[in-house]
Design a protein that fits this description.
Two copies of one chain form a homodimer. By secondary structure, chain A is an alpha/beta fold. Chain A folds into three domains: about 1-65, 434 Repressor (Amino-terminal Domain), CATH 1.10.260; about 75-175 and about 305-335, Rossmann fold (3-Layer(aba) Sandwich); about 175-305, Rossmann fold (3-Layer(aba) Sandwich). In chain A, about 40% of the residues lie in helices and about 15% in strands. Chain A is built from twelve helices and twelve strands. Chain A has helices at about 20-30, 30-40, 45-60, 65-75, 90-105, 120-130, 145-150, 175-190, 205-220, 235-250, 260-270, 305-325, and strands at about 80-85, 110-115, 135, 155-160, 170-175, 195-200, 225-230, 255, 285, 300-305, 330-335, 335-340. In chain A, the strands form three sheets. In chain A, strands 2-1-3-4-5-11 form a six-stranded parallel beta sheet, sandwiched between helices. In chain A, helix 5 packs across helix 12 (about 305-325), helix 8 packs parallel to helix 9 (about 205-220) and helix 10 packs across helix 11. Chain A is elongated, with a radius of gyration of 27 Å. Chain A starts with 20 loop residues before the first helix and ends in an 11-residue tail after the last strand.
Chain lengths: ~350, ~350
């Protein structure tokens, strides 16, 4: 028997080669199948054998190759998570929770961060080449992109968005219902003229929120409604408020912003530039329930997304569909949690 | 020649088998090496051949396997990015920027999210089993964990933290320098009693900031210093301010918080509960330069981290070391950018 090399060989390019199970077997003086048994969950190996193999493995820096195992089992144990740029403060929390949920089930997250929500085309090929087992996306794929992913037999779950035309699983917060609550409360408190601050044009979430508010306002017979567009960020919240006042000719009774961060921008602009008291002179509401919405200076009246239940459901739904690809799509909508903050005059809670 | 199946076969378990390059070759009626050439960057293939192969590949949902290619090239083209729970609002921006920088170089991010910074032990084995090419970490590994990663010949770059005892590459914001600037300005403006709000005990960043402030205060001959501990979050900022006043017997002249979010908590508590004017009665400063620090109600005096330069450097340093493992470790410290916000009385800018 040849004396085994103590450290992994170098390749022609001078890089160190990673140790294989054969190197470990040679150094430990055992069979390769014994090495496999030691590293396989649930397989039998004596304590002495385990110690001998682990000592050799440590010396060589060897560990089982999850990637190679994935090629054999046809499972990479990785899922793609697609987010668009986090102008929206609400996503970091979602991302950490999702990563932790998947991690508990032994699944890793391959992260794709888009500049804009409409940039999905750039990442579809990549995620397929990495053989992800599933895709969880907070950006909307086109029907063509979806077909490409489906053709590769990879289940998809939409996060906080859904598609009426497409058979895709989704978990979301019921945006329309949340907006209905906000509108109903504001109207009940006597507000008659409204400003709406929407988010980026390619955000489905923003469109749903805007339509939810507009439909409910129409339902209530409110016709004095002015709409302006932002990008979910604080600065555009400020700009949008000024634009709203100009377009409307005067400040409206209430402003409905598509997210909390823009609502905060509106509050600052209303107070600092227009000298308005919030909620004395004007009511301003948001959506999401992000951390800064709770800061005492803003205390935003909003609808909080039930992030924990949403991330748990999304991870479970995706993992179920990886296990059982024949499961039919499922759409889950969670009610948001009304937050009666101090940024709006509302009727007393019932 | 057998008529090729049009859709991938099913395995015994009823799962669809992914199409291979052989299936594509059979359906297109070309050789397997022709298929390889079409999918290989820079390899030659006629337009007709390309179209024929792509049509067959589309039909079968085939694409080249980045994972299998990684086994051959010994490159997974994945890097691990380790973050701890994002109580700190500053990380989402970092994470998106890092992911985009790596993506520009064809490298994917495998995300590991820790509950606490000291939970690194849970992820080391995982990242090694997934054969990541490198590790970028915003949590501190123990010397033993680092040795394990080094033994696997995987380069590591610390993000916004460094180790005095260990030879590891790092990119960070110079925390001590930033704190020196804050202390010098506050002292020059006449503040004589100080409160320090530190972050979680296992955060190196918090420790460096606290020590930076304490050392500079000692240097300036200031002895009236009270310290309390939070967790980087808004709520503990509020609690810490109350604790500080109690411990000190009265509000100090100035409060130095280990991050902006806790500074915002201190400002709200000072105003709402103690009826103090900020900065009329008390100056409160933070660190990081996160979005909410710019909100008009707070306008926090702080030190902004140069996130774009830091993420660019971190990604480049890691990729260089993946290319050339013999490169010696390098430590880069970037100066933070002083932000003279309205939350502190400072001498006029020179």
């Amino acid at each position: 028997m040849n004396k085994p090399t103590k450290t992994p060989e170098k390749t022609a390019k001078g890089e160190r080669k990673r140790a294989t199970s054969y190197d470990v077997a040679a150094l430990a003086g055992v069979s390769q199948s014994a090495v496999s048994r030691v590293f396989q969950d649930g397989a039998s190996a004596s304590k002495a054998m385990r110690e001998r193999v682990m000592a050799a493995a440590d010396k060589l820096g060897y560990r089982p190759n999850a990637i190679a195992r994935g090629l054999i089992t046809q499972r990479s144990n990785m899922v793609a998570v697609v987010i668009s740029k986090l102008t929206n403060l609400y996503y970091p929390e979602v991302l950490v929770q999702l990563t932790q949920r998947f991690s508990e089930r032994g699944v890793r997250v391959l992260l794709f961060a888009l500049e804009r929500e409409s940039d999905t085309g750039l990442v579809v090929e990549q995620m397929l080449q990495y053989r992800v087992d599933g895709v969880l996306t907070a950006a909307m794929f086109t029907p063509e992109e979806l077909r490409t992913i489906e053709n590769a037999h990879i289940p998809v779950v939409f996060y906080n968005r859904t598609s009426k035309d497409q058979l895709v699983s989704s978990v979301r917060c019921d945006q329309e219902e949340g907006e209905r609550w906000l509108v109903d409360e504001l109207v009940a408190a006597g507000h008659r003229s409204f400003g709406i601050v929407e988010g980026p044009a390619d955000s489905v979430v923003s469109i749903e929120r805007k339509m939810g508010a507009l439909n409910e306002l129409a339902e209530k017979g409110i016709t004095d409604v002015t709409t302006v567009s932002g990008d979910f960020g604080y600065e555009t919240g400020r700009r949008c408020f000024a634009e709203l006042v100009q377009k409307h000719g005067s400040p409206p009774d209430a402003v409905i912003a598509a997210n909390d961060v823009m609502a905060i921008g509106c509050i600052d602009e209303a107070r600092e530039v227009f000298g308005l008291a919030v909620p004395g002179d004007i009511s301003i509401v948001g959506f999401d329930g992000v951390g800064p919405a709770r800061y005492a200076a803003y205390d935003v009246t909003t609808v909080r997304q039930p992030v924990q239940r949403m991330t748990e459901s999304a991870a479970s739904m995706l993992l179920e569909r990886i296990e059982n690809p024949e499961l039919s799509p499922e759409k889950r909508a969670f009610s948001g949690i009304p937050v009666r903050g101090g940024s709006a005059r509302l009727p007393a809670a019932k």
